[in-house]
Amino acid sequence: MIRRNLTTADRPAAARQTSSRPRSRGAGVSNRLGVPLALAAAALSLAACAPGGDARSGTQAADPEVSTEVDEEAAALLPEAVAEAGTLKAATAVGYEPYEFKDDSGNLVGLDIDLGNAIAQKLGMEVQFDEVSYDSITGAVKAGRYDLSLTGYTASAERQEQVDLIEYASSQLGILVPQGNPEGVEGRSDLCGLRVAVEKGSSADLGIQEFIDSGECGDDAIDFDVLPGQADAVSALESGRTDAVVSQNVNAGYVANTNEATKDTFDLVSDDAFEATQIAIVVGKDSGLTEAVVAALESLQEDGTFQEIFDKYGVSDAAVDGAAVNSSK
User: Fold this and answer.
1) Alpha-helical segments (H) within 63-168
2) What Gene3D superfamilies does the record point to (predicted)?
């Protein structure tokens, strides 16, 4: 865990201050998101040892419930080498409901898993998901270790300089608090002086950094915990080691309102002060895959499969029309 106790005075506005001494996250803390903390820690340990942060190869995904027909025009856009391989290699950072998580049998499930399967079906391919750490995704896809990544990935101008980002969803940031909201959080300004946890490299990490840089908290600094995964952040909130978790509304709303294991444990606080972020599929710039994936997404939108996937997870409003590429400014 990286601990940041930051105010604007601690660093220049454009800088990002991190501690070089990771702290223990604590043992024996359960995670009610369906991803045991010990499992998350083990995966992240492997990520630190494997090239490019790859945590686990060949993760088993549940049999896809989604079914759609091949789009021959989209399939014809595949690079020859990819088409001959027959399988798309996809990276995902597990533990971010409803995008990607594990069911009671340990299988990968979620919106991104269904969408990845649907894209593969449109292209006449299969898809193999590998678990990776969230902050390793850009480098792993850029280096060609994966064909693409579906993992609730936040689009940004900086990231699209390195990889192609194909937008498919939109979400504001939300604040997850213990049920009953004991600290009385009504918006992001109420986070000043509190302990706040986020997933490393996520839109929440960037968003809270920007809020700290704004100086709005003054001397009442946010005690900022940047954790390896979303499951770690939620576990910290459940155990009382943090006062709030900031994440995309899609994720926070699912945890607070839909997940049977957690909906009686947490509340969601929304604040329009957080700007909407675009969620994107990550594809290598030199892979030749971008055009084919865009065509597959548009085909899924046309036949209704795309919206059905979002409806299935109770996040219908997060779906976007079209498939814009590298639109961040």
Assistant:
1) 72-75, 80-85, 111-122, 137-142, 157-160
2) Periplasmic binding protein-like II (3.40.190.10)
Range(s) of the domain holding residue 8: 2-15+28-33+173-270
Residue matched to tokens 């979620």: 110
Is the residue at 312 inside a domain? yes
CB atoms inside a 10 Å sphere around CB 117: 26
The C-alpha atoms of residue 282 and residue 290 are separated, in whole angstroms, by: 9
- For residues 153 and 224, state if they share a domain: no
78 & 97 share domain = yes
Q: Is the pLDDT of residue 26 over 80?
A: no
Nearest to 146 by CA among 134, 138, 135, 155: 138
Pair 55, 99 in one domain: yes
Q: Are 166 and 293 in contact (CB under 8 A)?
A: yes
What would the pLDDT profile of 116-151 be if each residue is shown by its tens digit? 999 999 999 999 999 999 889 999 999 999 999 999
pLDDT in tens, 53-84: 444 555 556 566 788 999 999 999 999 999 99
Mean pLDDT of all residues in the chain?
83
Query: What pLDDT is recorded for position 59?
Result: 59
- Contact present, 137 and 59 (Cβ < 8 Å): no
Contact call for residues 103 and 62 (beta carbons, < 8 A): yes
Is 111 domain-assigned?
yes
